[in-house]
């Protein structure tokens, strides 16, 4: 919260731009660059998406969502680092295992996984969005195996395997003493109570949702741009703020059509509490790559996929061009001429009040 409060204020310093023609000056204060700040994700998102252009293949892309049921989500809230990592790993493992089955696809697939922990009302709702190319490499990596048109993998099979693998892994980390519980979940520190809790989770259906394939590479990039660097709520959704409440737009997916769009009003303290539910553990990576898109061998495997698909490599310099455009000077709002940096402003040595500012860009 200290980072967000200080973002783009004199507390972090800034720089002065001036127009050579009309003499107008403007002070631009520095950003906090915290990954949870709604104002600081634009540049990071653009740079990340530009880098993903080189990974796109000329195949359909699918969007698969894995969601934890409420009884397991509350365990995740008490053990964020352990269970969130488990959620991402097991979701990818489920997709890879079903895709590798010769009865399904029989191929090594690639996955971009993005963790979200919120619903539309900013309540705790951990789930993973997976963007997956519609096909993969054959076991000998000698050919490309395409999925059926408009269909990737059966969601019921994914759901059952996801539930089994996740509960097995969760029981294992509990046995190794990696889970801690307090307050209303303190009874789960007992092994028998924890086992009963998992047994109840086995009796409910776990939600795995596969959306229709994207229309093309542009849609894939647009989706990644929206989801990869998203925070619990964007400034654009907030419609009114005063001392008594914060009002914001949200979608109630139980409604139909226009009835879905609603306004929620919360006490400011409750709004802040909900926002802070979604602060990730320090150093936790909420975007991960698996299969032939794993960071350790992505470049080589993408090159092999292109070769098997008879697709030329993308033209070089795309990423650098995007970065250089980001460094261009501002345009003067009065005369539309370029503004140039003429100086810096220094942050006050003693801020007016104590700050817990800490920059976490992981």
Automatic annotation (TrEMBL):
Region (Disordered): 309-362
Domain named Transposase zinc-binding: residues: 2-68
GO MF, one example: DNA binding
GO biological process: DNA transposition
Low complexity bias locations: 311-323
InterPro entries: transpos_IS91 (IPR054832), Transposase_32 (IPR007069), Zn_Tnp (IPR026889)
Transposase IS801/IS1294 domain mapped to chain residues: 110-297
Pfam families reported for this sequence: Y2_Tnp (PF04986), Zn_Tnp_IS91 (PF14319)
Domain of life where this protein originates: Bacteria
Protein name: Putative transposase for insertion sequence element
Organism: Mesorhizobium amorphae CCNWGS0123
């Amino acid at each position: 919260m200290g980072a967000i409060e200080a973002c783009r204020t004199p507390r972090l310093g800034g720089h002065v731009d001036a127009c050579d023609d009309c003499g107008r000056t403007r002070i631009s204060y520095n950003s906090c660059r915290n990954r949870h700040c709604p104002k600081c994700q634009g540049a990071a998102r653009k740079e990340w998406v530009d880098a993903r252009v080189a990974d796109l293949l000329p195949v359909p892309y699918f969007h698969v969502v894995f969601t934890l049921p409420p009884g397991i989500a509350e365990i995740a809230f008490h053990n964020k680092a352990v269970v969130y990592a488990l959620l991402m790993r097991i979701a990818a493992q489920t997709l890879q295992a079903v895709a590798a089955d010769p009865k399904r696809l029989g191929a090594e697939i690639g996955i971009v996984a993005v963790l979200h922990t919120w619903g539309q009302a900013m309540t705790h709702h951990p789930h993973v969005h997976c963007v997956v190319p519609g096909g993969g490499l054959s076991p000998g990596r000698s050919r490309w195996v395409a999925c059926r048109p408009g269909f990737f993998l059966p969601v019921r099979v994914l759901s059952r395997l996801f539930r089994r693998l996740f509960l097995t892994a969760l029981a294992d980390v509990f046995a190794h003493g990696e889970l801690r519980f307090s307050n209303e979940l303190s009874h789960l520190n007992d092994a028998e109570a924890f086992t009963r809790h998992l047994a109840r989770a086995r009796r409910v259906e776990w939600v795995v949702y596969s959306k229709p394939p994207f229309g093309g590479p542009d849609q894939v990039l647009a989706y990644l741009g929206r989801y990869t660097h998203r925070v619990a709520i964007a400034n654009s959704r907030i419609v009114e703020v005063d001392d008594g409440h914060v009002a914001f737009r949200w979608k109630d997916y139980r409604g139909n059509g226009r009835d879905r769009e609603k306004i929620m009003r919360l006490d400011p303290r409750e709004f802040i509490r909900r926002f802070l539910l979604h602060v990730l553990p320090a150093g936790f990576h909420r975007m991960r790559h698996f299969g032939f898109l794993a960071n350790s061998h992505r470049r080589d495997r993408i090159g092999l996929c292109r070769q098997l698909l008879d697709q030329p490599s993308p033209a070089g310099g795309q990423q650098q061009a995007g970065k250089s455009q980001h460094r261009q000077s501002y345009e003067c709002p009065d005369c539309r001429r370029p503004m140039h940096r003429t100086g810096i402003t220094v942050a006050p040595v003693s801020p007016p009040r104590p700050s817990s500012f800490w920059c976490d860009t992981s």
